[in-house]
Amino acid sequence: xxxxxxxxxxxxxxxxxxxxxxxxxxxxxxxxxxxxxxxxxxxxxxxxxxxxxxxxxxxxxxxxxxxxxxxxxxxxxxxxxxxxxxxxxxxxxxxxxxxxxxxxxxxxxxxxxxxxxxxxxxxxxxxxxxxxxxxxxxxxxxxxxxxxxxxxxxxxxxxxxxxxxxxxxxxxxxxxxxxxxxxxxxxxxxxxxxxxxxxxxxxxxxxxxxxxxxxxxxxxxxxx
Length: 224
Description:
The protein has about 220 residues and is α+β, with helices and mostly antiparallel strands.
């Protein structure tokens, strides 16, 4: 098998790549990395010294590709068959990349700030930073709620790279600051995402690991 993904099923940025792989129907070997095991952590660092997943290995092209956004771009460039995840039209591609960045920067980043802070030792919490992160989530929800509706997906009429990024961002952010009541278009969009086969599969694979998530109690029961 040409492709190997180093990842963890619970890790939010890994979801983006998993969904892209499933959408493209690209065969790959899934290799779970347990960062609590020093040997596995060192192996990951041998490919990407910062020690973060996901990392994609393409044995056929002798390539190691880190970072979720770059991995999806790479997969779309080399493994897209019938329909790409990034439109070939330059203007449409720019919109796809804009909204992919939006989900990562303004929803994914603040949610990770909140979750990360919950794991800090007593006396080391950043209350101000968490308050700012929660406020940013609502700013992003409001922007997204205003944007959605013109098309079926985040950046156009077809499911694409931006939607791959939206799934983990909204799934985990929704456990911290709900969008169900105040942002109806965001909620409808998330439900649309959650029904997609690639997303159902990704969430199902993560389910055994949800007990490790600090905000597990806020995950809707239908996903457990």
